[in-house]
Specification:
Largest sheet: 9 strands, mixed
Number of strands: 12
Structural class: alpha/beta
Order of helices and strands: HEHHEEEEEEHHEEEHEE
Radius of gyration: 29 Å
């Protein structure tokens, strides 16, 4: 009998709690239904790293493409559409849209981080660490390594996305691997100031100091090639002096071919 009474009391308590919760949710929904968007707050989370977009850019995108938001009921604002508009911009990696209780539409933006800039005679483009291509930005230039010359990737100046063919994308990825290796070495990223692609695909690495140009071949066998470049500086330069050679070829396995 006591067990029955306890179960009955517990059931009644749960039923009352559920009714209160439903009432609270209904009240909250009705309250939200009457609220309108009062302001826009934009945060560019990585503004200290890049300045491809700023808060005023995001506001302009939404003002132009969203159909308006200030004064609209919160329930009528499509947050997914807001994110779609912003994420469609080439320099934006991702965005998050949400509304706070005071009626503020909040937009948090993360920009794409370029790894390298490819400069062609008719224009250029950036690529991030994942090999995603996006256009150069007119309002800001990122301080990243520049690769110029006969770049074997055919994209327009406004293109964004992966390269058009597997061969082109592999080359992009290999070049990113080269840049990453130089960065992680702690030596070469500061000492190599230019990388030029020849018509036959060979890379020419130009150091910050000295007259030498390093004929590197393709972006492969990185550890071995950079090891031979280091041996050039530690073994050959002390013996011959700086600037004695103009070209140092480390393209072929196990060889350092120097030419005046």
């Amino acid at each position: 009998m006591r067990s029955f009474i306890r179960n009955t009391i517990a059931f009644c308590f749960l039923a009352l709690a559920s009714a209160c919760l439903v009432a609270a949710l209904g009240s909250s929904a009705r309250e939200k239904e009457g609220l309108t968007c009062s302001s826009l707050e934009v945060t560019v989370l990585d503004s200290l790293e890049n300045n491809f977009v700023c808060a005023s850019d995001i506001r302009r995108y939404l003002d132009t493409e969203s159909g308006g938001y200030i004064g609209k009921k919160l329930t009528s604002i499509d947050l997914v559409e807001m994110e779609r508009i912003i994420d469609g911009k080439s320099a934006v990696l991702k965005s998050e849209a949400y509304i706070t209780k005071d009626g503020t539409l909040n937009i948090a933006v993360t920009q794409r981080k370029p790894m390298v800039r490819f400069q062609k005679p008719d224009g250029g483009f950036y690529a991030d660490r994942e090999g995603y291509i996006f256009p150069l930005q007119g309002n800001y230039t990122a301080y990243v390594p520049v690769v110029d010359g006969a770049i074997p990737v055919n994209v327009s100046g406004s293109y964004k996305g992966k390269a058009g063919s597997e061969k082109e994308q592999k080359w992009i990825n290999d070049m990113i691997g080269l840049i990453s290796y130089m960065e992680e070495s702690g030596i070469w990223s500061g000492n190599i100031v230019q990388i030029t692609v020849r018509g036959n695909g060979d890379l020419v690495l130009i150091p910050r100091q000295g007259k030498e140009k390093f004929l590197f071949g393709g972006p492969d066998n990185l550890e071995d090639k950079f090891s031979r470049m280091e041996k050039y500086y530690t073994g050959i330069v002390p013996a011959k002096g700086e600037g004695y050679y103009s070209t140092v070829n480390v393209k072929y396995n196990g060889q350092i071919v120097c030419r005046k």
